[in-house]
Predict the structure of Phytanoyl-CoA dioxygenase.
Amino acid sequence: MTKNIKFRLIRVLANISFVRKVIASLVKITRGNFERSDLAREELIQLKKSNLKDIAKQVKQDGYSVDLKLSPAVVNEIFYFCNTQPCYALRNPRWGFYLKDLKLAEEAIGKNILLAQYFNAQDELPILDKVIRSPVIHAITQQYLGNRYKFVGCNLWWTFPTRASEEDRKKHAHYFHRDVDDFKFIKFFFYITDVDESSGPHVFVKGSHNRCKENKWKNLFRNRRYEDSEIVELYGEQSIIEMLGNSGDVIIEDTYGFHKGSTPISSPRLIFQIQFALFDYGVQNDTIDKLELIIKD
């Protein structure tokens, strides 16, 4: 069975609430604490206000927390990397370009570029590996997932202000949807640029990771996209949270809850994301053979 077929099967099973609960209960979930000395030495990520257990508790209750901050030095290093290394339009490894050549890249591929991803980012930029190994990150993950969890991948990408097609907006998650990546998982989104209404904030539906009001059986075999009006009708406008923030702000989220990326209006958005889950199916990472990467002339 190939990785993709196996993952598709898992997504169907993981989208059934009682199966999610049963599998999570069968996986021995014990919670522990990192040594205080490890946390005290942490310089890459700081707590804004809550302690680590409170952060995990908030994610369990609301589906998200915004109580971490990435250090300015790390933000600057990531930003510099992204301005000097090739990214790949619409996550296509054959459509590589340098950020300064965005308009030329759009002309070369014959369409507007909504987003562009960096491949093999963890290998290419060592500071990302340090963030992934952060004791603060792992302490929160351990509180949420228990001791048996795995790092399953990272992604680093730009989202640009453009008149993107509806097809691209749906394909690249600019409509509300659930992630069904495992039976239990957690993601960390790091804003590398300031994010306001003009740069397309991440949007999350508070509490929807625990409340399934839509008819999932009807859409069990596809990861359906939802219109804003459908989500408002199901969960109420008060549950829809726009994640505005400054560079370095971190969103911790269980993205089984409904969420989407907003399409930027005038300013691009740069995000780094890491993900942990109970199991690793080998499909959530940005790893690709360098021989497959092509930069457009």
Q: What stands out?
A: The chain has one domain: 3-292. The chain has a mean pLDDT of 90.
